[in-house]
């Protein structure tokens, strides 16, 4: 093992942002150490996007078959075999850590497994050994927020849920965001009775409320119990591995839900708890991340850069954002702050079944900005493209600027939404007039071609 303790760069975290920084800096012959307290590979590859979509894609396959089973000679049971789904998921995650360590080692990095913490503005300690560097990059991802309630240590975290081979009959998901809805949609297709509790009256807050209401109605039609204005009060374990989950509804009436598992889906925050950033003179906010300038450099310690979920940039905490920010940090490290962040529009998708997607301005944001816009919206489940999929849940909302015909925001629900939103992101980013989008000759019949009818 390389015992060098002085480096040009120490990277904390091993996800996409870290990988981009490491590759560029090693090409410049920098000495680089990379540190992670968890298996190398990062959240997206091991505990986030990729394993999650292995589950939700399986749920989508089940849903497709369920919707179209009347077309088959011998309709079979479309219920997912969860153990096989988890085995399928592991085919993607199992090779990641060894491949990551091998890649970084071949690049000439010192790979250090352990928990890093700052002991000075220019030094971190990992399991008692100090590492000094000219520069540091913090790309540690995110972790579930800590809930100050009795028994919340009994909650199953998302990374643990992704390893559960045998689902209990009943599951309660705490929080009404991406994690709860995506996992509930997958678990329900495997036969589990799922309940989602959300303390506000609006789940999936990053998406259009009208489409969310449509999705919630569809979610309930699947047998998933969605309870709004219901907050978690306590959790306790009882006999036979069961849990009693105390909740309080909008009328302040307490109630107890019984389940074999309660899953934490009540939000995430930057994974910064153990870094001792104060010792490193790095300003941060527990909920938002490290305070950075437009070059992603710490506002208080010029030796430190941050990217991805760890950085307080105001951008959505998404893997493509982390990947982009890693490239920006790499340029600013090696080219002396030549690249400010310029995000453009950022599409977002919740991989429920069907998915819901958004890009650009919400209707609320457009109103706040004083924009004069036209709303083009509807339920397109009766259109031929959706009827051929027997898709009962689909809708759209497009916001078009009345002054210049440019699309300000796009919101889509239904099969194909996750890909259609990228086409709409391109149109918004390029400031392409809606009439020109409508005039595009698109392959037919495809889901993309439905965009012309939406406009």
Percent helix among the residues? 25-40%
Q: Characterize the overall form.
A: globular
Q: What do we call the CATH homologous superfamily of the largest domain?
A: FAD/NAD(P)-binding domain
How many strand units?
24
Q: What radius of gyration results from the CA coordinates?
A: 23 Å
Key terms:
455 residues; alpha/beta; FAD/NAD(P)-binding domain; Enolase-like, domain 1; 3 domains; seven-stranded mixed sheet; five-stranded antiparallel sheet; 14 helices; 31% helix
Structure description:
- By secondary structure, the chain is of the alpha/beta class.
- It has 3 domains: 6-48 and 88-144 and 269-334, 3-Layer(bba) Sandwich (FAD/NAD(P)-binding domain), CATH 3.50.50; 152-266, FAD/NAD(P)-binding domain; 354-454, FAD/NAD-linked reductase, C-terminal dimerisation domain (Enolase-like, domain 1).
- 31% of the residues lie in helices and 25% in strands.
- It has 14 helices and 24 strands.
- It has helices at residues 16-27, 42-46, 49-68, 82-93, 96-107, 158-161, 178-189, 209-221, 319-334, 363-368, 384-387, 417-429, 434-439, 450-454; strands at residues 6-12, 32-36, 110-113, 116-120, 123-126, 129-138, 142-144, 170-174, 193-197, 225-227, 231-237, 243-248, 254-259, 261-264, 268-270, 284-285, 289-291, 304-306, 311-312, 348-350, 356-360, 373-378, 395-401, 407-413.
- The strands form 6 sheets. Strands 1, 2, 3, 4, 5, 6 and 18 form a 7-stranded mixed sheet that branches. The chain has a 5-stranded antiparallel sheet with strand order 20-21-24-23-22, with helices on both faces.
- Helix 1 packs parallel to helix 9, helix 3 (49-68) runs antiparallel to helix 4 and helix 3 (49-68) crosses helix 7 (178-189).
- The longest helix has 20 residues, at 49-68.
- The chain starts with 5 loop residues before the first strand and ends with a helix.
- The model has no long low-confidence stretch (mean pLDDT 95).
């Amino acid at each position: 093992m390389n015992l060098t303790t002085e480096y040009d760069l120490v990277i904390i975290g091993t996800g996409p942002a870290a990988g981009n920084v490491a590759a560029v800096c090693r090409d410049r012959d920098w000495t680089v150490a990379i540190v992670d307290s968890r298996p190398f590979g990062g959240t997206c590859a091991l505990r986030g996007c990729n394993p999650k979509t292995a589950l939700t894609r399986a749920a989508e396959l089940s849903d497709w078959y369920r919707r179209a089973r009347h077309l088959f000679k011998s309709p079979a049971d479309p219920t997912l075999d969860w153990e096989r789904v988890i085995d399928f998921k592991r085919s993607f995650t199992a090779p990641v850590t060894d491949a990551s360590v091998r890649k970084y080692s071949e690049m000439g990095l010192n790979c250090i497994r352990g928990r890093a913490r700052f002991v000075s503005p220019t030094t971190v300690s990992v399991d008692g050994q100090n590492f000094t560097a000219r520069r540091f990059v913090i790309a540690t991802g995110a972790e579930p927020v800590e809930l100050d309630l009795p028994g919340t240590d009994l909650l199953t975290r998302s990374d643990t849920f992704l390893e559960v081979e045998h689902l209990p009959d009943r599951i309660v998901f705490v929080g009404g965001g991406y994690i709860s809805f995506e996992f509930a949609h997958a678990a329900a297709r495997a036969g589990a009775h799922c309940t989602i509790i959300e303390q506000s009256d609006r789940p999936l807050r990053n998406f259009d409320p009208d489409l969310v209401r449509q999705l919630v109605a569809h979610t309930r039609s699947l047998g998933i119990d969605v309870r709004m204005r219901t907050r978690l009060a306590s959790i306790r374990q009882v006999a036979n591995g069961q849990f009693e989950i105390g909740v309080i509804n909008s009328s302040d009436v307490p109630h107890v839900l019984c389940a074999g598992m309660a899953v934490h889906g009540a939000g995430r925050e930057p994974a910064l708890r153990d870094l001792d950033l104060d010792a490193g003179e790095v300003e941060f906010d527990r909920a938002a991340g490290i305070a950075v300038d437009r070059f992603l450099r710490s506002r208080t310690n010029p030796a430190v850069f941050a990217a991805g979920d760890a950085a307080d940039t105001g951008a959505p905490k998404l893997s493509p954002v982390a990947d982009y920010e890693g490239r920006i940090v790499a340029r600013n490290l090696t080219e002396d702050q030549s690249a400010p962040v310029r995000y453009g529009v950022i599409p977002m998708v919740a991989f429920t079944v069907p998915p819901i997607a958004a890009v650009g301005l919400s209707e609320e944001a457009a109103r706040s900005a004083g924009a004069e816009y036209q709303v083009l919206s509807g339920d397109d489940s009766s259109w031929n493209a959706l009827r051929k999929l027997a898709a009962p849940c689909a809708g759209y909302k497009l916001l078009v600027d009345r002054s210049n015909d440019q699309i300000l925001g796009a919101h889509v629900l239904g099969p194909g939404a996750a890909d259609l939103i990228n086409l709409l992101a391109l149109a918004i980013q390029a400031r392409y007039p809606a009439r020109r989008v409508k005039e595009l000759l698109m392959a037919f019949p495809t889901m993309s071609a439905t965009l012309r009818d939406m406009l």
